Automatic annotation (TrEMBL), chain A:
One of its GO terms (cellular component) is SCF ubiquitin ligase complex. GO terms for biological process: SCF-dependent proteasomal ubiquitin-dependent protein catabolic process. Pfam families: F-box (PF00646). Residues 81-116 form the F-box domain. It comes from the Eukaryota. This is F-box domain-containing protein.
Automatic annotation (TrEMBL), chain B:
The keyword Methyltransferase does not apply. Pathway: Protein modification; protein ubiquitination. InterPro entries: SKP1 (IPR016897), SKP1-like (IPR001232), SKP1-like_dim_sf (IPR036296), SKP1/BTB/POZ_sf (IPR011333), Skp1_comp_dimer (IPR016072), Skp1_comp_POZ (IPR016073). Residues 1-34 are annotated as: Disordered. Belongs to the SKP1 family. This is SKP1-like protein. Residues 154-201 form the SKP1 component dimerisation domain. Keywords: Ubl conjugation pathway. The lineage of its organism: Eukaryota, Viridiplantae, Streptophyta, Embryophyta, Tracheophyta. SMART domains: Skp1. Involved in ubiquitination and subsequent proteasomal degradation of target proteins. Together with CUL1, RBX1 and a F-box protein, it forms a SCF E3 ubiquitin ligase complex. The functional specificity of this complex depends on the type of F-box protein. In the SCF complex, it serves as an adapter that links the F-box protein to CUL1. Part of a SCF (SKP1-cullin-F-box) protein ligase complex.
Amino acid sequence: MPSRRPAPLPQLKKAAPGWPGLWFREKPLKHVVFKMPLDPILRSPKHRDVAAAAAGGLAPGHLHGHGRLLAADGPDLTAPLSDELLLRILSQLPSPLQASAGLVCRRWLRLVGRLRRSLTLLDWSFLDGPSNRLVARFPELDEVDIVPASITPPVCPSGVLLTRGGVSVQLESEFEAFDPPPSPGLIPECRFLTPDAVDRGLEILAEGCPSLRKLSLVAVASEFGLMKVADECLTLLELELHRCTDQSLRPISAFSNLQVLKLVGAVEGLYSGPGVTDIGLTILAHGCKRLVKLELSGCEGSYDGISAIGRCCLMLEELTICDHRMDEGWMAGLSYCGNLKTLSLVGCRRIDTDPGPTAYLGTCPAIEELHLQRCQLRDKRSLNALFLVCEAVRDIVIQDCWGLDNDMFGTASICRRVKFFSLEGCSLLTTEGLESVISSWQDLQSLRVVSCNRMKDNEVTPALSYLFSLLKELQWRPDSRSVLLTSLSGTGMGKKGGRFFKRS
Amino acid sequence: MSSGDSGPSSSKQLVQQPAAAGRSPNQPPLLGAGGRKVIVLKSGDEEEFEVDLLDAMQSRTLRRAIEDGCGDGPMPLPNLTGPVLAKVVELFRRHRGDPRWADELQETEKEGMFKDYAPQKPTAEVKGFDREFVSVDRDALFDLLRAANFLEAPGLLDVTCDAAADAVMNMTVEEVREYFGLVNDYTPEEEAALRKQHEWAFQ
């Protein structure tokens, strides 16, 4: 180590009243002086004494219980710290604090932007404005949802928010004044940005955030934007396409690593659109051979589309079908999905109006889980067909389904390997109907019954209670009132007002 | 004590001790008590510390220097003072075998040098030491942060950065600026615009 000569003391004195003093106006001067001296002065304990003495006559031990760094440089304590170290500190903060940490100074804003991983865009101009603020501030995003910003805001907002299928739309304040109403419903369809604007935004996003893993967007007829995303974001794994059409699925094959895909063809109340048909499903099947999870929401199609997906996407493990508009007989296509492990039907008005002869239905060999949520189960033939296709299923979850009475539920007894069964919010099924089915499930290990009001504790027969005793896990809360009370416990609600009307 | 195999001798060898003066720079690394290799670190104010070579390897900066063959003479660390270096050296000793850096070491292993350095989970005692290590005032914490920044030792970085994050956890923006000695370099308009963006532009 070459020994440099300590700087002469007068220099230090000269530095003291300089600009850094402004930032420490409230603190005694010695503080400033002590921040100012640079390396050479504090080279040895002896000089440190001198400096401290000059600063305020304090012994060094008094000032530095733990010793000081020699290169204190101005009042900014973070100046000598690397970005990486500051990032470590900032990443320890909870996310609401991270957002406000950007207000501290420009450097922090830049650093906090690098920490941000997921973002939902609400205003399109933040993305394609003059200085590309979104990608400039958050270059390392991996999850971006630009759907809310893709909906044109109303000219005069009414303050009423309409939420459908996870998307919220501001309503026009004069939507009642349309005469006649522009669509069969009360509310006009929401309007989207032009394809040009969407393409431009996607181009900026793709170039600015090449490490994207998940993107939700509103599909447009033009291929340019999606192609750009596919070219730039090579690690994109998840894609959500809203207002999707057959035409907008054409560039889908360019996404070579895509594993999770959600298509929303139409959302009732927001937009109807041409939607996705067999053509789109076939394009998808041939383009995305590595698909693991697929969700079809509000899509049309039929046996052809589903069977094409089954034949081509050999890795498909999870299929979710929401509010479908598929033609009769589509369910027979499911048996082509050789690797399908989880099948979910969510919010479907019908399962399949005409599943065709049972001999042609086939089964999904690898199926493990079947989920039915908010579906109308009123057609015994189609429900029977569904259980036939999922004959090998191990877990069945039925939640808030309409029309599931004893007769309908009886069809579930063809599934012989059920180990886990969960039933929630189905008020037509009685204890008797449940008993007749689960007594035929020899492998049942776990049972959950919640909020099924027709089932009564006093109807549990000795045979059924013996069955319960064999289970590994049992949750039995069929009475929704008791569920309500447990969830209200401690809130002071649900006490019939007794405590308000008590006489003193 | 987390030191797996070094025995009782190593726990005492690192007390501050003036190193032998006048050693020639070409001498091989010193052998400390128990026959382990040691190196000498020299702080900016000329204090010298003997550190077990393997403990010093926790710091990426020191590891690079040692691998470049600078570990023979006393290694000058001009931007660390004696008291800070003493604390850091003690932390290195306590973090011996810490998986946070031992995994990294296994990757860069050469000549089976670290074969007896099996990673082991930090014990409650080490965690207690870490807490104690950073229960200091702001200026001292920043000294440690700068040391961590310079030395690039994962364990030291974790401990000090967690402490700094905890310190500002419940502060307002203005308090944070004061704590870090930062200057608000926004114009009032810019700051207002930034605050507003959080509301309308994104979530």
